Amino acid sequence: MQKQSYWAGIIALALTGVAGAQAVDDEPVTQLERILVTEGLTPIEQEKSGRAFTVITGEQLQQNQVRYVADALRLVPGFSVSRSGSFGGPTQVRVRGAEANHLLVMIDGVEVSETSTGEFDFASLLADDVDRIEVLRGPQSAFWGSNATAGVVNIITRRGERNGFKIGGRSEVGTDGTFLGGVSLSGGAENFDMALSGTFRRTDGFNISDFGSEKDGDRNVTLNGKFTADITPDLVVDGTLRYVDRESDIDPQDFNSGGAPDYAPGPFYGLVVDGNDWTRTQELFGSLGLTHKALDGAFTQKLRLTGSDGTRDNFSDGMLSFSDGSRYTGAYQATYQFDTPTLLEARHQFTGGYEWERETFAPSHLDETFERETNSIVGEYRGEFLDQLYLNAGIRRDFNDRFGDATTYSLSGAWRIPGSETRLHASVGTGVTNPTFFEQYGFVPSSFEGNASLTPEKSFGWDIGVEHRFFDGRLIADVTYFNQDLTDEIAVVFGGPPDFLSSPVNREGKSKRQGVEVSATVDLFNGFTATASYTYTDATEQTRAGGPRLDEIRRPRHSGSIGAAYTFYDDRARVFGEAVFNGKTEDVAFVPTLPSRVWLDAYTVVNIGGSLKFSDQLEGFARVENLFDEQYEEVFGYNTQGRTAFVGIKGAF
Q1: How far apart are CA 181 and CA 203, in angstroms?
Q2: What stretches of 295-341 adopt beta strand conformation (E)?
Q3: Of 506, 323, 330, nearest in space to 403 by CA
Q4: Whether pLDDT at 310 is above 90
Q5: Distance CA 296, CA 306 (A)
């Protein structure tokens, strides 16, 4: 009988959300797309940010028919995605060569990573209700705490438009028995807005193993709601609530021996084989926030509560196990801004805040719930000078009841060179990632045992880049160099006799990551648009101080993408195509006849599609994914999706 997950506590602040997107007074609504909500404690215009960032709009997701957020992130410089098999299979996202739990993931400002692993499984994240995705690269712990060691992804869902209501719907069918259906209701009155949406997607999938013929499918139900209400002209309340219920078929790796008398490895040892294994996750996230403005908008106070609860059930090798984790946070911050027009024509903004966080983890192998609590104080300064130089500084002190106290900082700056179309940007900062509950207390019979004495990982990183606009902004190109070190890296080592259990340890020395990110966008007058990105990543792990370095697994040295779209027929028709390139990568193998590390071949996946508006309310669309039926692996031993085709219709009334 599967364990049910219940959300049981107050809901907590993450310093952003609906109210945060309204931080610029008298800004027309159409300009909000240029605001970067996640850049620090307070929003800022994108061109004033000194950090390396990418914004993907909901319109882009809809036009390119992206169904999973993970697939949108494949196009972002510095990102690599590893999906274990079919849709719904465990999906890790890494940035700039770091680990998956070094990337902080939020949905509407609520941290959504699992407390057990410290990382977010992107397999559950459909893109159907997403309004925008904000991506920050580089250490961000000064603003967002533990796990923001290498970057932040904040998914912001759609909000309703005031003074009216709208009903929307979408339906899609495709190969492998795939069906997607979605409905939405959004709108509001003069002083409030709301949005409700529900999405269901299922697929029979394909066989992720090289052996047998069993298909591995996935079912996903996602419900989302949010609201904003003006209690007074200066007092705004907002809230969000999201529920995900997903069940996915998976195939196990065979670690069985051949039996007596010598118990040698079996013929499929270390390989992915057909099985009846499955995993089910239930996730509930919510937030409630209050924003008050005074002194004609110069003084702003925010209070937010957020909460999350997640349960993961795993059925493997005839046994059912589960883990249950929750995270509750509360935060208060106050911001004061003022101008000094006679001194460098400057604008200054100071923000101070306090945060509280409580995390819990309950594994099935122990009748015990582990918990830890963190109290933090945080400060931020923003300065604008001569309408061309923009500075940002942040500092944070974490008081953790399980680990030593930690201080992190962040500095960034952007300079728009006068009389030119060139903008320079740079940032430097530190990050910290606490050991996960599983690394400390996890247990897998005859395989893994946690280490309660682990200490947090620490990181220092910086980047510098230049952005230039050509042809009156029709072509925008950006080149950024990044460099980041990781100390006290947590890695799993394998023990010796008699039990041969693996266990995590803090490594000595430094793990180094460096590289170059290149991106470009083209927007021509005749309806043609294009994007391109390329990343070179050199990520190595330190086995011991002064010892040999190995490449980090599943992080290609070369990766990139290119996309193009053409709109015609009075803007009613659109066609698009994209190609995602992933260079060869190393992965681990536990097959006795193979080396402990193997190479996964480079691959290029091409997707095409198009849409046609039959009227202002009705639109049809179609796409083909993996057009050339590329055969490749993202994780050793796991097959990937071949050529598939989809067709659908959507409407809004």
Answers
A1: 12
A2: 299-316, 319-340
A3: 506
A4: yes
A5: 28
CA distance 433 to 466: 29
Closest by CA position to 315, among listed 268, 246, 252, 271: 252
Task: Give the residue-averaged pLDDT of 82-108.
Answer: 94
Q: Assess whether the previous peptide bond of 261 is cis (omega < 30° from 0).
A: yes
Beta-carbon neighbour count of residue 31 at 10 Å? 10
Strand partners, 201: 180, 220
Average pLDDT over residues 352-368: 91
CATH number of 19-552+568-574: 2.40.170.20
CA 226 vs. chain centroid, Å, equals 20
pLDDT, average across residues 307-318: 88
Q: What is the pTM of this model?
A: 0.90
Backbone angles phi, psi at 71, to 5 degrees: -70, -30
Whole-number Å distance between alpha carbons of 202 and 181? 9
Structure tokens at 390: 């923009």
Bond prior to 498 in cis (omega within 30° of 0): yes
> Whole-angstrom distance between the N-terminal and C-terminal Cα of the chain?
43
Please give the Cα distance from 242 to 253 (Å, whole number). Answer: 33
For the chain, domain boundaries: 19-552+568-574
Q: Which residues partner with 408 through β-bridges?
A: 396
The alpha-carbon radius of gyration of the chain (Å, integer) is: 24
Note the pLDDT of residue 85. Answer: 86
